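no rush on this but wanted to send it before i forget. theres a chain ive been looking at and ive put its sequence and its fold in token form underneath. i want to understand how the tokens follow from the sequence so walk me through it. thanks a lot i owe you, the record is right below:
>
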Amino acid sequence: MSMIELDQEEDLLRSQVTQLSPEHRQYYYRLEGQGIKDPDTYAALNYIIVGGLHHFYLGRWLFGLLNLTGTIVGGLTFSVGGWMLVAVVLVIELPQLFRSQAIIKRYNNQIMAECLTSTRQHFHLSSR
């Protein structure tokens, strides 16, 4: 999904949130505050490519552990071919560095949609 499409999706979600009553919006924003991730924090963690910290930040523990393990094992065995493992991690992770804005926006849009659904279910609202 392109950044333009992600921005449009976010705008649509935000317009649906503004249509909620003040009480419902308050509930929604409480849920949203627990799940939304900061794009700047994600980007900073993403710059530490080989650590996989950006995966942990989004709750993707398996990817984070694989990234971190691959980096550590590759670093410890660097002179006997471990450099290839580090290179694989870099090849996989480098594109994510350049797509970090889209990745975090997609994640946050998903959280917003889930919070909107939870709010509607909590208050037994229709999904107009």
About this structure: Residues 18 and 25 are 7 Å apart (CA to CA). The chain is about 80% helix and 0% strand.
